[in-house]
Amino acid sequence: DVKVTQSSRYLVKRTGEKVFLECVQDMDHENMFWYRQDPGLGLRLIYFSYDVKMKEKGDIPEGYSVSREKKERFSLILESASTNQTSMYLCASSLAGEIVNTEAFFGQGTRLTVV
Amino acid sequence: AQKITQTQPGMFVQEKEAVTLDCTYDTSDQSYGLFWYKQPSSGEMIFLIYQGSYDEQNATEGRYSLNFQKARKSANLVISASQLGDSAMYFCAMREGSGTASKLTFGTGTRLQVTL
């Protein structure tokens, strides 16, 4: 059974803290994605990675960075958390290459609250 | 500009009726894929159906079918014989291009409520 695991289901952090959200997949997928989900705004892409140490900005990268040191792990970093980063964060992974028909598999999500 | 547009924030349908959820997309790529996902209140994202830009036939998966109109850039999801368990958020998504760096973009979603 395919699996994408996010390290925390719920997280509460203080303004200004450095926050790490971890995501691990066991499917040997090349692509990994970080989204945030807010009511009325759907899923917005923050960053994605298509290989180890390779990353591309999504639609809302400001205030975030990412790290992919190993193929199976993709970390989202909030350098200095702010209250407007309170949201649900979803990680996903998929195959890459000459394949557009591969679905993305999602983690269970991390609900982050910044106080 | 929005790549994926879902114009229906919420929809109601009676049990056993069919419902169409709208999705339009914007791309200049010749090769792209369109996906629909379901998100129940539990929060997990469930893949429902896929349509490729070169596919000539509309995709079907059980009670789900995708009404693909390439010239109009629309990819509407049709759910036949709605069930109470179909109540959820539904997201349309697009994957553009091929190769290593093909990102997956989602719409804002439609909340479907199935009533008795």
Largest interface: A-B, 33 and 30 residues
Structural class determined from secondary elements of chain A = mainly beta
**What's the gyration radius of chain B in Å?**
14 Å
Strand content of chain A: over 45%
Bin the strand percentage of chain B. Answer: over 45%
Count of DSSP-assigned helices of chain A: 0
Number of beta strands of chain A? 11
The global form of chain A is globular
What are the segments of chain B in which pLDDT stays under 50 over at least 5 consecutive residues?
A: none
Written account of the structure:
Chain A is built from no helices and eleven strands. Chain A starts with a strand and ends with a strand. Chain A has strands at residues 4-6, 10-13, 19-25, 31-38, 42-51, 54-57, 64-70, 73-78, 87-94, 105-106, 110-114. Chain A is mainly β and 115 residues long. Chain B has no helices and twelve strands. The mean pLDDT of chain B is 93. The interface between A and B is medium-sized, with 33 and 30 residues.
Summarize this, please?
The complex is a heterodimer of chains A (115) and B (116). Chain A has 115 residues and is mostly beta strands. In chain A, 0% of the residues lie in helices and 56% in strands.
Summarize the SSE layout with pairings.
The complex is a heterodimer of chains A (115) and B (116).
Chain A: E1 4-6, E2 10-13, E3 19-25, E4 31-38, E5 42-51, E6 54-57, E7 64-70, E8 73-78, E9 87-94, E10 105-106, E11 110-114
Parallel strand pairs in A: 2-11
Antiparallel strand pairs in A: 1-3, 3-8, 4-5, 4-9, 5-6, 7-8, 9-10, 9-11
Chain B: E1 4-5, E2 10-14, E3 19-21, E4 24-25, E5 32-39, E6 46-52, E7 60-61, E8 64-69, E9 74-79, E10 88-96, E11 104-106, E12 110-115
Parallel strand pairs in B: 2-12
Antiparallel strand pairs in B: 1-4, 3-9, 5-6, 5-10, 7-8, 8-9, 10-11, 10-12
